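Supplementary Note 3. Input sequence used for the single-chain structure prediction.
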Amino acid sequence: MAALGWLTRHRRPATARSVLAGEASAEAARKTSAALETQERGTDLPGLPAEPVFPVQGDVRAAAFFDLDNTVMQGAAIFHFGRGLYKRNFFQRRELARFAWQQAWFRLAGVEDPEHMQDARDSALSIVKGHRVSELMSIGEEIYDEYLADRIWPGTRALAQAHLDAGQKVWLVTAAPVETATIIARRLGLTGALGTVAESVDGVYTGKLVGEPLHGPAKAEAVRALAGAEGLDLDRCAAYSDSHNDIPMLSLVGHPYAINPDTKLRKHARSLEWRLRDYRTGRKAAKVGIPAAAGVGALAGGTAAAVALHRRRR
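The predicted structure, written as discrete structure tokens, is reproduced below.
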């Protein structure tokens, strides 16, 4: 399993491949954000404060960066995307069973397993190879409506909306494919998304990645690259995540938040007095001062384990 070395649970400095993945993701995000900004940002959520203490109203050199899986949405987007592709006969039942098991493990354990995530990405790459990017984008819109829309954490969405209401840009930062992440960002009214960039030639997927998956240090590199291009002051920016794998990204900004944190991130966040919020159980934030918008949907719990995601097709 030497090929999985980049996904080790131990923190490590960014490699050249991490930098490449981060820069590619930032470039892809900037290309899509202009179009997203012209669309409606969605309706305001009830109960949002008009002028929250944080984020600072009108601070355009600040932005917010949100991890996706188990931070913005319950479970892992790539697994639900695989479920949608199965429904459209992109692959067979054996692969769906593997997706379902990985999703169930993720939901029950509450942490990312490197081997599961790598396997899911490899499967996704092999499945989309030879397909047009436009085709997958269109299917992704349908999959969002079918499987993802009802899995958004209301509390985290309220946090993102607070930044938007303050006039700041809000980006998703995820190991999920950038196309999938961009669809989710647009549907939530966010600015755009940083995600894993799959190589395409003349609009057709080659089955390869640009650099490596946007995971761990690569996420930090993507945020750093985007901040430089956008003229942001990272000390005034905020980042939100559930995973200790995102400590490099959280450590970049002046306002890190642990949302639905795994055990390692919770311990790390408490040691540094980062703000915490857990929407899975409704527990109070461990540090006072998280925006009042975070209270919205605090009792929105997780759905049942996804062992039965693949009901037998008749």
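DSSP finds ten helices and eight strands in the chain. The longest strand covers residues 169-177.
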